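Record type: ASSEMBLY
Status: queued
Input:
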Amino acid sequence: MTFDMIGIAGSALTVHRKWLDAVSDNLANMNNVSRTSGPAFQARYVEAAAGSGTSGVYVQGTQLGSAAGRIVYQPDHPLADANGNVKYPDIDMAEQMGALIIAQRGYQANAQVVDRARETYTAALQIGRS
Amino acid sequence: MTVAPIAPVQGVLPTNYVASTPPVAGTDGSAFATSLTGAVDNLQQLQSTSNQLAVSAVTGNLDDIHNATLAATRAQVTLELMATVRNKGVDAFNEIMRMQA
Amino acid sequence: MLESVTSAALASAMDGLALRQRTIANNIANVNTPNYHAKRVSFEDALAESVQAGDGNVQATTADSLEPTQLNGNNVNLDTETLSNIDTVLRFQFAAQAAGNEFTAVRSALRTS
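Status: finished
Output:
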């Protein structure tokens, strides 16, 4: 592949962006309340796998967290059941923030790879230009 | 007072330190022609390699773009070199033709 | 003159450096992929030996990195890869310039004759 370093970094930018989307979605829905009779909001996890040879990385699939959620005693809530319980999603904010930082760092690192790839290809194209 | 007469000049003897030069063999120019055709073949090969790599690069099949630019520059410089050699050869030929006229 | 040992060595170096650059890009792309092991490219020692022997053509080789893995099986060290990336870019720029200078020298000779 010609100029394939840009494609490799591009595949990683896509994967990390999907990861960032999933994490921010999880954080936005952290406090969704549901009835104890139904499922809680399920956290989304992105599965990444390396491409064959040197073809970067791709998203192999998405996994959903548990739907069991956390039972919390809130009798004043309109969705509370007979015992006064409601269900919150089983999402740990610290874990999601940690994932956010890792995904962001990976995204920035791959954006820099694109810059350096362009410098290399420019040097290659300048050979013989006098 | 009597002055002795000057002795007559003897013939000049040839100096033998310069060896007689052998007759000059005419150069048939075949060595130059061979190297020139070899250079033309080399140039054609360089240009075909360069074209092949350029096509690979634009169809997306070339991993290292520097191979294409190196080959293109090599072919170009070899062509310029050959053109200069040809021009000098033609100039020399014209110079000689002018001398004979 | 255009087919000398130097010329072949510079071309081999550029091939090796480009492969190294591509490998680093792949390593950085997989910085967060579970069970991925970083790869390293080497060719400098082989090239030095080849130039001593009067040749100059070598193939670069790829090997797995032996760094310890994190909990998810990934052993990509982002700092090492970043520094190696910058180093490789500069070396490639130098090799490309050196290769270009050969042609510039021939062109100058043609112009003044």
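Annotation: Chain B has a mean pLDDT of 84.
Annotation: Chain B has two helices and no strands.
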